[in-house]
């Protein structure tokens, strides 16, 4: 049964043709029974019934053309004095069709013709011995079916347009959701890339410095070499733990040991970071000014990563015998960071235009992090030699 229904929906003209044949058969029977009513009726009435049946058969394939054909048939009936027959029901059908699916001009034309049809029929074939009010009532009564057919078709058109609008809106919202999902994925990838860069660049640079120092003093000072190797081991484990935490973000439904991910670094861990840097051979002077207070997690992580990246750059580009200083200042409405060194400074292409040559990824990452929390960052050579990185991060109450 469902297959038959689907077949009929795919072939509406076949359905209309079936009803057209039924209408033609009924009209033929009516013409035969009313043969003596009008002298000219039999031949012309058959032609009218045949053409109106054709209108029903092709109403959905060519609604506008069938409406014009119906109007011509109606005028021919008036002129040739062919009274109303059952086949004229096709006029209601085509009026409904153009109101539902036809062009707007055809819908309006059909409405005007339908409102006039009842009156014209009453004027052309008036009832005998009826008063004026009776004729008027009959004309109105004959007009109602045409008006109802048009209203029904126009309501269907409005409903279809409403559902089409809902479908279009749903499709647009789906596309917007997909676009937002892609943006979110890209942002998450960029965040993870920044985290991986910070973790790898800092810890690997510490390990390289310690490995070079261990190789240099391996024979002369085995104890120092052993201590450097222990630092390399500790730093490697820290790097591995942080990388596992970051990669854990990419997994779905998986948990690390203990069921929880490693917490993200915050300002309180700066002392551990700086102590680690000192152990690697870079003297660092660290001071905190102002009254420490709870910070938003984004600001905590941003501050930590800026200091981490700045000290990593100092080790890379500062040269021999370089020293650094870190200042953390709590203002009423912001957190200030100042990282300076007295080395030879980084090459200008690493900080001009944010590392436009593709090498200054660390500084680019800093600017992105600071921008995400609504802060400002300034990086460049320090007067008198060395390099300076300063940042101001806005503070908001921690929730």
What does this structure look like?
The chain is α+β, with helices and mostly antiparallel strands and 399 residues long. Among the domains are: 2-125, no CATH class; 263-399, Heat Shock Protein 90 (2-Layer Sandwich), CATH 3.30.565.10. Helix content is 65%, strand content 9%. The chain contains eleven helices and five strands, in the order H-H-H-H-H-H-H-H-H-E-H-E-E-H-E-E. The chain has helices at residues 2-10, 12-33, 41-57, 63-80, 89-101, 104-124, 132-217, 222-250, 270-279, 297-317, 361-372, and strands at 284-289, 324-330, 334-341, 376-381, 387-394. It has a five-stranded mixed beta sheet with strand order 1-2-3-5-4, covered by helices on one side. Helix 3 (41-57) runs antiparallel to helix 4 (63-80), helix 5 (89-101) packs antiparallel against helix 6 and helix 6 packs antiparallel against helix 7 (132-217). The longest helix has 86 residues, at 132-217. Mean pLDDT is 80; it is low at 252-262 and 353-360.
Describe the structure in brief.
The protein has eleven helices and five strands, in the order H-H-H-H-H-H-H-H-H-E-H-E-E-H-E-E.
């Amino acid at each position: 049964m469902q297959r038959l229904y689907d077949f009929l929906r795919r072939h509406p003209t076949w359905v209309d043709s079936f009803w057209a044949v039924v209408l033609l058969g009924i009209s033929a029977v009516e013409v035969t029974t009313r043969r003596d009513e009008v002298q000219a009726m039999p031949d012309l009435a058959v032609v009218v019934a045949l053409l109106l049946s054709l209108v029903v058969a092709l109403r959905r394939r060519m609604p506008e053309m069938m409406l014009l054909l119906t109007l011509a048939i109606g005028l021919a009936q008036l002129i040739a004095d062919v009274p109303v027959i059952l086949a004229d029901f096709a006029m209601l059908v085509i009026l409904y069709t153009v109101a539902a699916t036809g062009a707007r001009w055809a819908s309006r034309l059909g409405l005007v013709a339908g409102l006039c049809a009842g009156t014209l029929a009453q004027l052309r074939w008036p009832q005998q011995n009826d008063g004026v009010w009776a004729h008027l009532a009959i004309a109105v009564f004959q007009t109602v079916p045409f008006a109802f057919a048009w209203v029904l078709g126009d309501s269907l058109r409005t409903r279809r347009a409403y559902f089409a609008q809902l479908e279009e809106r749903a499709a647009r919202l789906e596309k917007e959701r997909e676009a937002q999902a892609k943006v979110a994925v890209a942002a998450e990838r960029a965040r993870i890339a920044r985290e991986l860069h910070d973790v790898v660049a800092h810890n690997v640079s510490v390990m390289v410095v310690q490995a070079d120092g261990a190789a240099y003093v391996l024979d002369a000072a085995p104890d120092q070499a052993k201590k450097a190797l222990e630092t390399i081991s500790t730093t490697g484990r820290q790097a591995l733990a942080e990388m596992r935490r970051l990669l854990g973000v990419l997994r779905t439904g998986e948990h690390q040991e203990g069921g929880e991910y490693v917490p993200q670094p915050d300002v309180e861990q700066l002392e551990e970071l700086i102590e680690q840097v000192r152990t690697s051979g870079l003297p660092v002077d660290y001071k905190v000014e102002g009254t420490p207070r709870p910070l938003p997690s984004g600001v905590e992580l941003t501050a930590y990563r800026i200091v981490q990246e700045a000290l990593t750059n100092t080790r890379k580009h500062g040269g021999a015998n370089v020293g650094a200083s870190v200042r953390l200042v709590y203002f009423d409405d912001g957190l200030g960071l100042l990282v300076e060194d007295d080395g030879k400074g980084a090459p200008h292409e690493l900080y001009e235009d944010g590392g436009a040559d593709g090498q200054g990824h660390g500084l680019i990452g800093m600017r992105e992090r600071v921008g995400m929390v609504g802060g400002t960052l300034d990086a460049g050579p320090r007067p008198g030699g060395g390099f300076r990185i300063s940042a101001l991060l806005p503070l908001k109450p921690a929730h």
